[in-house]
Amino acid sequence: MIATWGFGLVLAGTPGLVDWRMGWIWVKLVLVAALTTFHVALSRWRRAFSADRNMHSVRFFRIVNELPTLAMIGIVLLVVARPF
Questions:
Q1: What is the pTM of this model?
Q2: pLDDT tens column, 32-46
Q3: According to the 3-state scheme, what is the secondary structure of the chain?
Q4: Rounded to an integer, what distance in angstroms lies between the CA atom of residue 76 and that of residue 72?
Q5: Which of 10, 53, 59, 69 could form an S-S bond across to 48 if both were Cys, CB 3.0 to 4.6 Å?
Q6: CA distance 1 to 4
């Protein structure tokens, strides 16, 4: 994740590579930030499991398990199609 953020910042900082006036790049950045926030939440939930303080049901984790996949599909579609 750290390498991805590092390379992404280098690409974003390269002049002329990204057209910041386009809407798709901003939506992509929101999805990437959401994935990072999700990663932090997973870390907290893992620590809660370790301390035997889990407050969530199995159904919750089954649903939450699909969120990163949906976000990554959205990111790829935005980069490839650049719809707006």
A1: 0.85
A2: 999 999 999 999 999
A3: CHHHHHHHHHHHHCCCCCCCCCHHHHHHHHHHHHHHHHHHHHHHHHHHHHCCCCCCCHHHHHHHCCHHHHHHHHHHHHHHHCCC
A4: 6
A5: 53
A6: 5
